[in-house]
Amino acid sequence: MKKTFFTILFWFWSCTWGFFATAAGLIYAGLMRARGFRPKVYHGNIYFEGVREAGGFNLGPFFFLGTKHSEYTKMHEAGHGIQNLILGPFYPLVVGIISELWFNKWSVKNAEHLKTDDWTLEERWDSYEKCWVERSASELGKKFYGIRKEE
Prior knowledge:
The structure is a single chain. The chain is 62% helix and 13% strand. By secondary structure, it is of the alpha+beta class. It has one domain (2-145). Strands 1-2-4-3 form a four-stranded mixed beta sheet. Strand 3 and strand 4 form a beta hairpin. Helix 3 runs antiparallel to helix 4 (91-109) and helix 3 (71-87) packs across helix 7 (132-145). The longest helix is centred in the middle third of the chain and has 19 residues, at 91-109.
């Protein structure tokens, strides 16, 4: 019952205060469905796998993952959904832009590590979460969804 209530509240809040990211997520989800991707559910969030080469991105209660990801990645992206609830219309400007710029910078800087896969999952996340936006998403995801890096 508590989980159902949280999911209903999450979607209501996402569709009101977090409208801009949610609307963009709904449009992008529609495009992914039209391209043949199948939606999945993660703690009330809707997500798609394999829509980009690596990493993931969030648009409110929707998130989109690369082909290679972990449970921690899902938790992290769902944490961005919580950020959308907190920041509402400011989420795309604050978190969305910073997150995508950080991902691109981090990917280029760590390209060799990423190619050889010589990092543990924990080392990779420790490096990635040096950006406050990313660290905050993981902390919120842990608080609400309780997944650890090892999973």
